[in-house]
Design brief:
elongated; 3 helices; two-stranded antiparallel ribbon
Amino acid sequence: MSRERDRAVSELTFEEALRELEIIVSRLESSDLSLDEAIELFKRGISLSAHCNAKLERAEGMVKLLIQNQGKIEEVPFMPVEGDEV
């Protein structure tokens, strides 16, 4: 993790950021940290969470459904059904 922690959040892939976020949550739950360490990890975790959220929002915007419409393929934006979890 130290290699990932030293990298800027913006350089991480979604998977790398999520993995680091999971490790941070685990460390924060362990309560073996000083207050200063916990605050630093929490700040990093907030940045990682925002990064993951932004990546997911971009991916959602790129998702297209291909629909057969009168013999031609048409791209339409993905719209989740209300009440469905995404």
